[in-house]
TrEMBL record:
Pfam families: DUF4880. It comes from the Bacteria. InterPro entries: FecR_N, Ferrdict_sens_TM. The lineage of its organism: Bacteria, Pseudomonadati, Pseudomonadota, Alphaproteobacteria, Acetobacterales. GO terms for molecular function: sigma factor antagonist activity. This is Ferric-dicitrate binding protein FerR (Iron transport regulator). Residues 24-63 form the FecR N-terminal domain.
Amino acid sequence: MTFLRARAANRKNIPASGETEDIAARWAIRMEDGELDAREERALASWLAADPRHRGALIRARAIWSTLDRSRALHAPAHPSHVEGPATMRWHGRRDILGVAASAACAMLLAPSTSHGTVRFLRTGAEISAPFPLESGSVCLDCNSEALVAGRGMRMVFGRAWVQGGNGACVLSAGDVRLSLRTASLILSRTRDMTEALILAGTVNATMSGRGQAIALGPGSLLRQKGDSTPIVDLLSADDLARQTAWTRGMVEFQTETLGEATALFNRYNGRKLFVHGDALAARSLVGVFALHDPAAFARMAKQVLHADYVETPGRIDLY
């Protein structure tokens, strides 16, 4: 079910950082539409003056949107629909998707209206999202991930996404990497200085910003680009591919990871946290495939294989 909720704001109620980014994105889209009128200029000036962080958010949003908008223009619909107003959308009641900003009718500090097609700023918390539809295909975000989607385009801001392309062309971007696909699927990842694209099915054409012709990537291809360096392409084995995609099935496979590293990954996906006591135990490894959302099963296996003791309480599991 989709929930629409207008967010009132004033100088005594500065939006939280996530909402600030949404509002900045909406301003960026409006500014792409053309010159602001006098009322909009006053509203933007008021919003920028309300918090020094707003100006930086707007700069980031304009950079992100300009990249995505260039990709969207290749496949823009003949009659774009109106951008929806402020919204908190829930995927099957589990996941918040913050709509891109708030309606200009709410208050001067909120973002303006615009005539661009529907845009969404997607953010996940500690759980993997259900599929979110694109005009051609769908996207599923891993936990703690952010993306901007519009029409058949998606800009990966941070984290990881599983994208399944439909019959129509789909254009993706992350960092300097641009990907075009049709009836293909891939996992796209973005951190502060690394972009990765793992092709699961079909053929994906990859280009780098300002760098020559496209590279055709087939199933099992893993493209990595660190910073602005030349990208590297590897071909994964079937076992490595299954391991890299385990999270899309709600699973995780550990091979060489220490217990400390494994519990850190579990804690990304669960409210009930795992804590390992003692450096010697944290340095040991537990090999196997586990359900991402069942830390208690992992603790039981640690006891069985590593002879570790554990204590369960409602909010945590302590391993000794």
